[in-house]
Structure formats: C-alpha cells, structure tokens
Design goal:
Strand content: 15-25%
Oligomer: single chain
Number of strands: 21
Structural class: alpha/beta
Distance between the termini: 16 Å
C-alpha cells in the first residue's frame, strides 16, 4: 500500500517564499500538484500574477501558522442549513426576503441531458431524494484568508452523496474519495462550450473544470450521475467562509481527537512542531478551529485522506445531532439560516428560501441513529498513489440506494409490510420454531417499549427483518447494526433494570430466544442463526433475492452489501471519539 503523498506545487512554492506556515490549508499533498494540473484553467499565471502577495511575506495567512480551513467541512453545513430554514415560516417577510437574496444558483443548462431516470413516487407519494453536498475550497472573497492562499479556481476535496430514503426517516451519506479515478463526462465551460470529457481522471477534477473561482457544480453533478447511475435531485455547495460562519452560529460543534495536534501537523512545511492547535480528547470547536479539524490529515493515523473523511463524517454527525437537539426555534436557527444562505450555491431547483424550507422540513423526522455515513468502497492503485473504486462492491452500494434499501438491509421505501406479512417460522425450519405458538397480536402497550436490534450472525439483513417484525407488533424498534460477535446460535434478548416484563413481551415474537439480564438500559435484541433459519436464511435466502422478483411479483432487494461497507458505517449518534482515524502511525 503506497504511502500518502505530501506537498504539492503550491505548498512547495509557499515554503520557498517563507509562506509555509500560512499555507497549511494545502495539507493534503494530493491537493497541490495533482489538482493544479487537473483543473484545466488554473495555470501558472495564477501563481505568478500576485507580486503584492509575495512582498507581503505571508501576511495574515502566515500569522495563522498554517491553520487553514478544511474544504470538506462545508458539506455538513449544507445539510444543516436546509433544516435550519424551517424557521423561515414564522420569521416574517423582511427576514424571508433577506435569506432569499442570499442564495445563489448555478447554470441549470450545464446539467447533462442524458441522465439517470427520476425516482417515481409510490401510491402514498413517498419518494427518495438524492442530494450532492460539495465542500468548495474557492479562494474568492474572504475565502482566501480562511484558505490561506492566493490560488484562483476552486476544488471539491470533499463530496458526499446524501440519499434520503422514501420513508424520510432514514438517510445515508456516501463519501466519494477526491482522488478516486473515475470517468468525467462532457461538461459546460464558462464560455458556453462543452468539453469532450475524460475516460479517467481524479474525481475532484470535475468541480475544477473551467478554472473559475466558483467551481463547476454542474460538472460534479454530471460526474456523480455517470458514476453511480443515480439521479441527483439537488446539489448544494458550501465554501470556507460559510462553513466557518455556520459553526459559530451554532456556538461550536463537539469533536474528539485521539492525540494533540500542533502547527507542524496542520502544515508539514513548517518543519517544526509549533504551537498546540487542537488538544487531545473531546472539545468544542468553531470557526478556524473547526476548519482545522475537518481539514487535518497529518499527525493522525497514516496521514491519508481516508482518515480525514472519517473525521469529516464524525463532524457532520455531531453537527447534525446538535442542530436537532437544540431544536428548530427562531432564536437558534435565524443566525444559522443567515450564515448558511450567504454561503450556498445550489441548483436552480433549490434557489429560493421556500424551496430550501421544503427540503429542510423533509429531513425533520430522521432519527440520528438512522442517519448513516459510509465511504464508497476503494483501494489504492498499484501504478500510482491514487485510488480505484472497488467493483462490484461499489455498484452494489449504488443498487442498494436505488432500491431504497438501507445499508443494513431494511426496506425504507415508505411501503412497509403489514403486520400479517411479518416473517413467521416455517413448519420445517426447526423443532423449536415449529412447536412455538403463533405470534401474539400487537399490544397497544408495545408502543412504549423501545428495542435496539443487533445482528449476531454474518448474514446481512437479519437485523432489518427483526426490526420490521417488531414494528409490525407496534414496538418502537431501531436497527442498531452488527453485534460485537457474529457467532450467536440462539437469539438473545437482554434487559436492563425494571425491563424484564418488556423483554418477555419481545421474546413472545422470537420463539426459542433466551432472555437474560444485561448491562444496557432498556431492551436489546440480538438475532442469532435460529432466527435466520426460521426466516428463510436472512438476506442471502430466496426471499431476499439476487436480482429476481419476490413471490408477490415486486422487485427483489439487491444483493447484500459486503462487510467492508457495512462494518465501517457511522451512525450520527455514535461516540464522537470512535472511528476517527485510518491506518497506523503518525
């Protein structure tokens, strides 16, 4: 596995001019040299045309000793921004028009005409929504101060495809590595002409096509649609300045670091440890410190972009959780709405405050545990230091989203099975199940019993099946993911203090399950191999399908996702100190 690259032409130039400390923003090594060549318009003239910058000897940027904002952070801001706008409804006309005037949109004619089909709503009007969230490192305006550099153009070093399921109770954000090699389709340039496209280029090169300070959001959207076969309904771009303002508007975001970070970690060209930038452990960050956190690459793990994406996912999770916890009151949301709308560039379909409001309202019922983040399956290339997306794993992920199945196998189309259609044990599956009494009718009291569901086997989809069965019996159940062990032969129900009676009610749905006192509060269900046998073998059995049709004639769910995807998923309510690094060293 080749080591991550360091440096880049822009970094090297600044180091030679004594500006290394102020140019920490180029921490990503790969950003500098590679992006400069790929951006198709940011030529050498951009570097040499600013003599006043050279004479300044670093100026404000140098004084910051390399603390540069992270480009990747903006996307999180975008997600939250939408929810924030819920408050517009009662904010009054003057505020509404102010927010409306803040919003900028890109050219809709630059969106490709040859696109994946639009998702169709079901009989109840349920329809999934796919939103492309882009963090722009544009250096225009105040962003040059935050970014610490004078380069023109813009790059998208972080991109997340957010899939909001049709039930609007689940969502998953897929991080697409910036240096993954992908095909780039034809894209419209600022002069109105279209490029020929490229059979293979870095993913983040798409946003830079044309070399403008605002980037090329339409080209990035066209590239994602070409790559995934998924129609992007909306695209939202947030810049450095917007991200910084938004983190201040929410009075900071809680994050966690496994070790202390110093100036030399933020800017390797400093060639010394420098002062402390971020301490070890839990802390609340905003503004420049928040940018430092999300853009940090060196000094933790193996210094790769993979670890940085993990921290960005943790940051987005923490921000989303805070916005939801604080509530959608005008006092909390007006400052955030103002900061967000000043910094957004959106597609024409979201180019007004009321449209953003509608989108924000569609997210209000998503529980933080059901907001997931994963990274598209990847591997290092042998011929260079870039990445390839792993196939067929990546395509399985795209197909899972198109089928509106969650990454742990739940049906989130909005058309959930009726109670009568919930799984039941076949007569020949096993003796314990065959002799068990029929599942009891739903008890109205079940609605007050919360159950966390874990999969205690290696078969994908079992936790989702058990969750559906519990919900059909009116329990409040959430799929919590994979259990610590995958060797459970018998389904286990654990209960906390005072929860024995509730656990017994749950056990009535799972004949043969053992019921034991546990350390966690509430009721926990861990499904075992007996549940798999009683339900047709879980996601790998005929009921789950492998591309055919189910018995009732409806399309079967896609093949199960590989554990390389599911085991690395983050829920928005996960511990903020968990899963924030990749690799060893540093």
């Amino acid at each position: 596995m080749p080591p991550p690259r360091t440096g880049g032409r822009a970094e090297a130039r600044r180091a030679a001019q004594g500006k290394g400390a102020g140019r920490a923003g180029k921490d990503g090594g790969k950003d500098g040299g590679k992006d400069a060549g790929k951006d198709g318009g940011r030529g050498a003239g951009k570097d040499g045309g600013r003599p006043e910058a050279a004479a300044a000897g670093g100026g404000r940027a140098a004084a910051r000793n390399s603390r540069k904002p992270k480009k990747n952070v903006k996307k999180i801001v975008a997600w939250s921004a939408a929810g924030v706008l819920v408050l517009i409804a009662g904010a009054g006309g003057a505020i509404y028009f102010k927010l409306n005037a803040n919003i900028k949109s890109f050219d809709g004619d630059a969106i490709a005409t040859d696109r994946p089909p639009e998702a169709q709503a079901d009989a109840d009007g349920n329809k999934p929504v796919n939103v492309l969230l882009i963090g722009s490192d544009s250096r225009g305006g105040n962003n040059s101060d935050l970014g610490g550099g004078e380069d023109g153009g813009a790059r998208s070093d972080t991109t997340i495809l957010l899939h909001v399921y049709a039930d609007h109770k689940h969502a998953v954000g897929i991080s697409i590595p910036r240096n993954a090699k992908v095909p780039i389709p034809p894209c419209k340039l600022p002069n109105g002409k279209w490029t020929k496209g490229a059979s293979s280029d870095l993913f983040n090169a798409a946003f830079s096509v044309g070399g403008s300070d605002g980037g090329n959001p339409a080209c990035a959207q066209n590239t994602v649609e070409k790559l995934t076969g998924i129609r992007v309904d909306h695209t939202i771009v947030v810049d450095f300045n917007g991200f910084s303002a938004m983190t201040k508007a929410v009075n900071g975001v809680d994050v966690c670091l496994p070790k202390a970070i110093y100036e030399g970690d933020v800017n390797p060209n400093l060639h010394r440890k420098g002062d402390l930038v971020l301490p070890q452990g839990k802390q609340t960050v905003q503004g420049q410190q928040a940018l430092d956190y999300v853009r940090l690459r060196h000094g933790i793990g193996d210094g790769s972009d993979i670890g940085r994406m993990k921290r960005q996912q943790a940051f987005l999770s923490s921000l989303a959780s805070k916005v939801k916890k604080d509530g959608l009151s005008p006092t909390n949301l007006l400052p955030l709405a103002d900061a967000a709308t000043k910094s957004l560039v959106v597609d024409p379909g979201l180019a007004s405050a009321d449209k953003l409001l509608s989108f924000g309202l569609s997210l209000k019922n998503i529980d933080m545990h059901d907001l997931k983040f994963v990274t598209a399956p990847w591997r290092y290339r042998t011929q260079d230091k870039d990445l390839d997306l792993v196939q067929p794993d990546a395509n399985k992920l795209w197909e899972t989203l198109k089928a509106d199945q969650t990454i742990d196998g739940q049906n989130a189309t909005g058309q959930q099975p009726d109670a009568a259609a919930s799984p039941s044990a076949p007569a020949a599956s096993q003796s314990a199940a065959s002799s068990a009494p029929a599942a009891p009718a739903a008890d109205a009291g079940n609605s007050s019993i919360k159950v966390a569901v874990y999969n205690g086997t290696t078969e994908n989809g079992l936790a989702g099946k058990a969750t559906a069965q519990l919900k059909a019996a009116k329990f409040v159940a959430t799929t919590a993911g994979q259990a610590a062990s995958t060797k459970y032969k018998t389904t286990m129900i654990e209960y906390g203090s005072g929860q024995k009676a509730n656990a017994d009610k749950v056990a009535a749905l799972f004949p043969g399950a053992s019921v034991e006192a546990g350390n966690s509060a509430g009721v926990t269900l861990i499904v075992g191999k007996d549940f798999s046998a009683a339900n047709g073998g879980g996601a790998t059995g005929p009921a789950a399908g492998t591309g055919g049709a189910a018995a009732n004639g409806t399309p079967a769910p896609p093949a199960p996702l590989p554990t390389t995807v599911t085991n690395d998923a983050r829920s928005a309510d996960d511990d903020i100190c968990a899963n924030t690094t990749y690799g060893s060293g540093g």
